[in-house]
Amino acid sequence: MSSLSDISIELLIPEIMMIIGILAMIIMPNLGDAKIRIPLTNTSIPVLIGGTRFNQVNNPYIPSIIAIFTFSLSFIVSLVMIQGETNGNVGEIMEINQFTNLFSLIFTSTLLITSIATFYVMPPRKDPKIPKNSDSIDSVSTKINILMNNRRQVDFYILLSMVGLGMCLMSKSTHLFLLFVSLELASLSSYVLVGFYKEKDIGGEAGTKYFIVGSVASAVGIYGMSLLYLWNGDLQINSLSNSWSSMEILDPMAGIGMGLMLVAFGFKVGAAPFHLATPDAYSGASSPIAGLLATASKAMGFVAIMKILFIVTLPEEGTEAYWMIAIVIISVITMTWGNFAALTSDNPKRMLAYSSVAHAGYMLAAIAAIGSGLGTQNSNILIITAVIFHLTILVLFKLGAFLVLSLLEKEGLSHNMDGLKGLARRDSTIAVSMFIFMLSLAGIPPLSGFLSKLLMINGIVNISAGTGSLSSATILNWASSVNIIFWLAISIVINSAISLFYYLRIGLIMFFEEPVSSKPLEKSIYLRITIIICAIFTILFGIGPLSEILLEIVNEAAQSLV
Amino acid sequence: MNLDILSILTLVPLFTGITLIILPQILPKEMSSNLKKITRNICMGIALAMFAIATMIFIGTIGNVEWTNLLHGEYVLKNEQFSLISSIGVQWKVGADALSFPMIWLTAFLIPISMLVEWDAKKGHIFHPLILIMEGALLGVFVSLDLFVFYVFWELTLIPMFLLILLWGGEDRKYAAMKFFIYTFTASVFMLIGILIMYFHTTPLPGIGSMTGHHFDLVQMSIQGNFMPNEGLRHFVWILLLIGFATKMPSVPVHTWLPDAHVQAPTAGSMLLAGVMLKMGAYGFLRVAVTIFPESTIIFIPLLVFLGMASLVYGAWVCMGQTNLKRMVAYSSVSHMGLIFLGIATMQPLGFAGALFMMFAHGIISPLLFAVAGSFKHHYHTLEIGSMRGIAHHSPFLSGHMMLGWMASLGLPLMAGFVAEVAILIAFWLSFGWLVMLPTLTLVITATYYLTSMQRTIFESDNPHQGILPDSLHGDKPRDVTWHENTGMFILGIFTIIFGIFPFIFWDMMSVWSTEFMTEIMIDAMQNNNIWRPSLGWILEAFK
């Protein structure tokens, strides 16, 4: 057994920073001038907590400043950890390697961008005036109001930090129980964040729906986990992996347990048919939160899927995994459903939500290719590299697109394509950035979306195209002899072509339609900075030396996973 | 990073253009307004410098190239290629040969002229940098020997042209810009799929493509010969590439974006669109589809003949019914582009060289036509043929340029167009016999519509001293062309005649390229694959 002293604290610095940040955010708004009078004397001792809030901490932006500070610190620490290739174990339940370091980087960068972008989103309420007669009921309720005022910012950023904490812990855990608990920590916080804007009915409804469906999915997952526990007697991922590989024929209990867990994680990544709550949740949540769900939350789901599929259940080379066919079918349904639903949706947020469903389908296709057992260790690593790379850069252009919508949200225009009409005329920089995001989502060279899609298709084609007999004279003969995995690549290409329609539609609407209002867009400088940074990095990670560096890091991460 | 002269030729206009657009947004107000005043001078300076460099490369001052001495498939001024994304095999690799160099020179030649013609364009501080960006992108297409970079530049040319049409176009500019964008973008997606299929069949090269094991290197692909083992797949890729390139060229039936785009585009946009952008399609077709898949090209000769013939005849036929000057010229471009397909389909050295010279000659003549049409729009505010008569009285220079351009385009001897047409027609007769009657008769139609339109605009007035002015002038006094329009058109006219009288300036390298490189590839393909088409059998004999 490990004791507390075995735990190397330095490996968990990002998480510890977030915890400190949360504590600071809890304490800060409660600091006040409350005093205790020592009995029988006139001396009062300040206790600092309670009473009237100090002016210095009354500033509603303090929680967001703390959050930005915390996230940027943990972002830098993650960068340093990647640079130093930090690895090690924390007790028996956590392992730190390049894979987890990279995902801490993804999560912290997402949260950093989100917290910067939401800096001005929640305006503080105006302080109500206290009536002169200090004993009246009005006065008391106003005082309570003042106390409660500006707590929303605190709540928001605490929840945001909780999401980050859960995600980072989750990527590091090697024990299914810790994995699930931290996943739920992040999920529960994100349910609340979805319904955070209670002024609007749609937010509450979306939050409730997301919560209900999400808890059912989690319950199913926990049931699967309990079956696995019954089967193995241990939830250590390594121990599960040993038992799985020593299993000669599929034990029903293990199979069902694994399948049920996949349902829970499938909900997180938005795979069909568990994706039905996603569009509602995304369109009900405020745009930065929807962006968070579409990037970090999805990455979290994929980490879980990769952990249980690649570490626990991956068979030896040359044999097909039990789950291969299931994932193939799910991936094709997911990408096709996502794309066709996105084609018909008139709400840009729903469109982006469905497009993120489609992207989940592409990544699942790559995962299915690994399960086919056709590839060698090296080619598997390449496919995993493609998936992780896609998850990494998705943070830039998916989140960026949602942030553009968030700029429109302030005018109440983000729920309709009307809001995007003539955006180029109102603000050309934002429109160009949005167009870059759309092209990158569609996978047009030289943007980074193309690079990841190319890597995925390349991985699939490399391992599967050789299965068709080369001697066949016509294309049809060859097509009938090729492995089913090859058709996944074809379906990715066809789906990408379909997706071009709705991505380009946004571009056409922005550049050709007459704007609904002639007012210039709001000057929220922080939001603008994040959008432009996202757009620049979308290009930089697509071509040139930066993309090379990122690919190298991702490749190392993929190697340390398998 | 070791940049050579071709990279400089590409990247300097590109980055200068981008900088000149971004800089005024960042600088303080006073400085930026000063900068805006001299922007067009800077742009013209850069464009002229690029033209000087291109000419010096041609003469041999830079690089010491003897263009007619190039070995089989050799590229000159190659740089030490360096990788852009080495893990997936993308590298910056540029080079020029006798196929691309005339196009490079043509681009460098046309850019300053199109700037000159629109010297006082509105919002010149954006207009001229956009043309510089256009130059960089176009040169990038012609110099890059890596399919990824080629595709990126190919798409990049869309953006400045799209903005030129959208911001400086005529009344229907939105529709035209949208149509232009959708057509060419969709077509290039087909091309991208074709490129990707080719990519997945390449074998690793040392040093690049470390992660995927593939590369985008065009030269290696053509050296590896039949690197795609499946014949059906080769034909499929060839068709995909054809869709991409034929839409840009444009060939019937995907030509419909061109007349709209031309009519709405500003003069400089039209000049570049007709002069260089259409040639991108033909260039890409020769560079990628024909060079890498020669046997598919041979198999699909009937398709090429059909497409070429359809564009030629249909384009010319439709021209006769046009009442809009620019629309007529646009359809005549479609018609002339059909000749390029016919030249390629002959599979003869003369036909290839004719097609190359057609690309070059049309690249000088059609900008002249569009400059004339643009001046009509500028000074008479209308493009309707027949709404004015006897304009020669009022605008002698404009009428002179119009006459010269129209004559050159209908293929008058001693003009550049004649050389190309005659070469293609002779080669066509050698290959397909009496089928040549159809294109030859089409030349009569061409002459008909050109002469009719000329007669109905600059001649044929009922008054011997005065022309009939269009209503759109609203009684204003008609003007002749401005000095900068005049200069631009004058230079174009001069060069039309120069290349008509001394075609060997570029013809030599083109014919060497066609005989030594293209024909050898074709003969190899026929022999290796036992493609013995009865109609082509005797040509093969003739080659030996």
What does this structure look like?
- The complex is a heterodimer of chains A (562) and B (544).
- Chain A is mainly alpha-helical and 562 residues long.
- Helices cover 69% and strands 2% of the residues of chain A.
- The longest helix of chain A is centred in the C-terminal third of the chain and has 33 residues, at 377-409.
- Chain B has a domain at 302-544.
- Chain B is globular.
- In chain B, strands 1-2 form a two-stranded antiparallel ribbon.
- Chain A binds chain B through residues 382, 385, 444-446, 451, 454-455, 457-459, 461-462, 465, 470, 472-475, 478, 493, 497, 500, 504, 508, 511-512, 543-544, 547-548, 551-552, 555, and chain B through 83-88, 90, 148, 151-152, 155, 166, 174, 177-178, 181-182, 185-186, 189, 192-193, 196, 199-200, 211-214, 229-233, 236.
Which features does this protein show?
heterodimer, A: mainly alpha, two-stranded antiparallel sheet, 2% strand, B: 544 residues, mainly alpha, 1% strand
SSE order of chain B, one letter for each helix or strand = HHEEHHHHHHHHHHHHHHHHHHH
How far the N terminus sits from the C terminus of chain B, by CA atoms, comes to: 46 Å
> In terms of structural class, how would the helical and strand content of chain B be classed?
mainly alpha
Strand sequence of the main sheet of chain B, in spatial order? 1-2
Overall body shape of chain A: globular
Shape descriptor of chain B reads globular
How big is the Rg of chain B? 23 Å
Largest sheet, spatial ordering of strands of chain A: 1-2
Helix/strand order of chain A: HEEHEEHHHHHHHHHHHHHHHHHHH
* Beta-strand residue fraction of chain B: under 5%
Mean pLDDT of chain A: 86
Strand content of chain A: under 5%
Distance between the termini of chain A: 26 Å
Using the CA coordinates, give the radius of gyration of chain A. Answer: 25 Å
Report the structural category of chain A: mainly alpha
Multimeric organization: heterodimer
Unreliable stretches covering 5 or more consecutive residues of chain B: none
Largest sheet of chain B: 2 strands, antiparallel
Give start-end ranges of low-pLDDT stretches of chain A.
none
Overall mean confidence score, pLDDT of chain B: 86
What's the count of strands of chain A? 4
